[in-house]
Write a structure and sequence with these properties.
Chain lengths: 219, 219
DNA sequence: TCAGCGGTTGACCGACCAGTCAATCGGGAA
DNA sequence: TTCCCGATTGACTGGTCGGTCAACCGCTGA
């Protein structure tokens, strides 16, 4: 009981610090903020931060891993579904976009301070980051095998292009380069997949009857 | 004469510091290195750095702007050519890839420390960075006007996706996520444009051209 | 020969900040 | 009531590093 109660309280403060970290890192950037900023934001004493975390870095590490592991799970789960590649990519793009919509500060921190900071924090988590690319590449690999996708590029290449496009969109939202309203998010989900799958070019003057996908795609 | 000689020498030292900065920033990251590291690398005294630059930041600013302005010039020049959009995009992608091939350390610094560090340095240069997106968007806009590109996405969106894909590739090379040999560079130039223009999906044989957006987009 | 003057030097200063630690609190068990 | 122990506090320390500055060097022109 006491253990549970104490544990419960402990988890709360820890959570408080983690959440405060996200807010502060998002606002000021990891290097520009002090540990005391995080403590203040969380409403706890400076020292308590070091009771729950070994270092300032560990706060960011924890924030990142917590969320990134969820994403890796989603990618793996999506890939295992028996649906067209297009739908898988839509699910992945949708998850990332929704993550941003649901908690923009968290995604800002993850992208700006980790994923795009490959020289500092990204370095530590390169392995994890790579796993995401690999998961996406696997989706493409399967799609190439079934003939849904061309084989003209390697799955790795396609994964980088796809993920890069999405991350650039989020970056655009984060820094007000692109409009970031509800409609924009929904549109972006569709369009990023559409662009990567179908390309920007007009295909035929008249163009493809939409058709299919209801039809057998091979054999 | 003396003026010229002195000026020549001055330029040399300044250049020396700038180049040393690139090397040190690329190796250690901007925040992780000290001004003395740059001075040592350049083989000059600590104080001289402050003779030529106001601050540590100004070194990075200078490095970035010097190169970015070249890129903005290239984009504008390419856009003005009377050639298919496809060729324009190839020229832009080619320029960026070649920049990396020619001076990977410089591009690493620009991307890792500025372009992808929108929270710190990127902030200062957001305007400049935006100009590049706008330049690419302009290429797409014209292509849509001539019917080369579909109008299903906004030029801004297309520009972000295109640039994002390229930057992700460079990041892949920088951090050894993608193989980075001569052939890879050449292939990447072609494939990134091909992917963005034509898409990943197989179109011809059987094809699963699902959906839409080829349908009434407006009017 | 010498004064003038950039270019050049590097020791030093002051600010900042991650991380430590001894003290205190509070609640449950004996 | 008292003891114990983990949670909590925040002043303090040690070290780092950006930026300053007074002195120095060596060329040039008089």
């Amino acid at each position: 009981m006491s253990a549970a109660a104490r544990h419960g309280a402990a988890v709360d403060k820890r959570r408080l610090i983690l959440d405060a970290g996200v807010r502060v890192f998002a606002r000021q950037g990891f290097y520009r903020c002090r540990v005391s900023d995080v403590a203040d934001e969380a409403g706890v004493a400076y020292g308590l931060v070091y009771h729950y975390f070994q270092s300032k870095d560990e706060i960011l590490d924890t924030v990142f891993l917590e969320r990134w592991d969820v994403m890796l799970g989603v990618i793996a789960e999506v890939d295992a579904r028996d649906v067209p590649a297009r739908e898988k990519l839509e699910a992945v793009a949708g998850f990332i976009v929704d993550s941003y919509r649901y908690d923009p500060e968290l995604m800002k921190v993850i992208i700006v301070e980790v994923t795009r900071a490959a020289n500092s924090f990204g370095r530590t988590h390169l392995g994890k980051i790579r796993e995401a690319y690999a998961g996406i590449a696997e989706i493409v690999r399967k799609a190439q095998a079934t003939g849904e996708h061309k084989r003209s590029v390697t799955p790795q290449f396609a994964a980088m292009a796809f993920y890069g496009a999405i991350e650039q969109l989020l970056t655009g939202w984060i820094f007000d380069i692109l409009p970031a309203g509800e409609e924009d998010f929904e549109r972006a989900k569709r369009q990023v997949v559409q662009t990567v799958c179908e390309g920007l070019e007009e295909t035929a003057p008249r163009a493809s009857a939409p058709s299919s996908d209801l039809l057998p795609r091979d054999a």
